Amino acid sequence: MRLGVMCSGNGTNFENIVTNPLCNKHEVVLMIHNTKQCGAVKRAAKYGIPHVRVPHKDEVVLMIHNTKQCGAVKRAAKYGIPHVRVPHKDEDKMIDLFRVWRVDLIILAGYMRVIKNPSKFPAPMINVHPSLLPKYKGLNVVERAMDAGEEFTGCTVHYVNEELDGGEIILQGEVPILPDDTVESLTKAIQRKEYAILPSAIEHVKHQLQK
User: Fold this and answer.
1) Total number of domains in the chain
2) Max avg pLDDT among 66-75, 85-94, 181-190
3) pTM as predicted
């Protein structure tokens, strides 16, 4: 399959998809990211995979000023905010990019924004979520599992639909919560489980699409 991957962070799941032997029958043809300092960019460049940044519409993408000595210019530079804006609908741009690249499957690999209209995208979309859905949808799920006194947590690969973290479950992996776990250590353990199950989930979707 031709895969499109969406990222927001360090890109470790993205690189796992690219390098894992279970995925070597597939080709990652495009990586879309929505953050300026996205580690997945270097990983995409490392493997020669095209990548495009599509900012989220809630992000400040432009500062306009009308005076020569405007203090806001320094503030914009401090946060890396450009002075020129070309308005566009973010999801429409993503949809067009994935359509042009003829992707067969879209993977949200640590993409930290809600896709509002997943059904409009030109290919099925899956997400990896750091909890055993349907428990702990949304944000801060590692902390919530620990605070609830759970003995196990884990991760879930699921189809994306209009309900937040509510799509059909494809594959799950359990992770024990150890007595000396911190949020950081448990998060890393869950990430390792994500690396293990995401390629298998992609392979499962491939067989489903071929039926």
Assistant:
1) 1
2) 181-190
3) 0.75
Length of the chain: 211
88 is catalytic: no
Question: Tokens representing 166?
Answer: 């509510």
Identify the residue with better confidence: 27 or 85. Answer: 27
Cα torsion 34, 90, 23, 135: sign: positive
7: tokens are 């990222």
Q: What is the CATH number of the domain that holds 11?
A: 3.40.50.170
Active-site residue, selected from the candidate residues 26, 33, 51, 129: 129
In sequence order, the 6+-apart residues with CB closer than 8 A to the CB of 110 are 7, 8, 9, 10, 11, 12, 13, 14, 40, 128
Quick: pLDDT tens for 30-76.
Answer: 999 988 788 999 999 999 999 988 876 544 444 443 345 666 667 76
Three-class DSSP category at 105? strand
Residue numbers of the domain that contains 185: 2-210
